[in-house]
Amino acid sequence: MDVVAVDERAEPAPPADVPPTRGVGGVLLVGGLVGAVVSLVLLLDKLALLADPTFVPACSIDPVLSCGTIMKTWQASLLGFPNPVIGLLTFPVAAAMGALVLGGVALPRWAWWSLQAGTTAGMLFVHWLVVQSLAVIHALCPWCMVAWVAVIAMFWWVTVANLRAGHLGGAPAALRHHGWGLAAWYLAIVVAIVATFPAWAAGLVGL
């Protein structure tokens, strides 16, 4: 009987449900492009509002979904200039990094650490904005919420990729079925929105 030689030095294949590096590249590319477009739209609306205080942004739909209300608050210019400027400076970088990964470029470890730092900062900023929108301003910006989704997805996938690669000292086995965690994260934000605006949310579904 023939005996098949096994190369014990071969590395085991990663679990099928752990996102491949190119998957992370796709999330960064799409999330970065979407975030950049959203930031540009918001910045143009902000400039129009500064030029004409009576200007009503297209995303001001009702008393809850009201970009105009949020644009007039200090939270919309946390660093002294409109928040969308931050997005215009950072989202294209994320998109470019994603394009490189999709193109097969092997990013050095420092680049992955930079992505981790950037997406973590973005994630924390997004959740500060979520709290401000729900608890302080009592209004939501539809375009901002699109950016929230993009930033959280990029943070999640970059973190999983870094753990999988050992850049953060994580173990791939702990990352199985990680998609449920991301879905639960989004659901928690939706629940928080519904709990803050119950009558408005009920109206959306005809109750």
Automatic annotation (TrEMBL):
Q: Where would you find this protein in the cell? A: Membrane
- Keywords for this entry? Disulfide bond, Membrane, Oxidoreductase, Quinone, Redox-active center, Transmembrane, Transmembrane helix
Q: Where is the Vitamin K epoxide reductase domain?
A: 21-162
Q: Where are the transmembrane segments?
A: 24-44, 85-107, 113-131, 143-163, 183-205
Membrane topology, as annotated: Multi-pass membrane protein
Cite a single Pfam family from the UniProt record. Answer: VKOR
Cite the CDD domains for this sequence.
Answer: VKOR_5 (cd12922)
State the superkingdom: Bacteria
Q: Which family does it belong to?
A: Belongs to the VKOR family.
Recorded protein name is Vitamin K epoxide reductase family protein
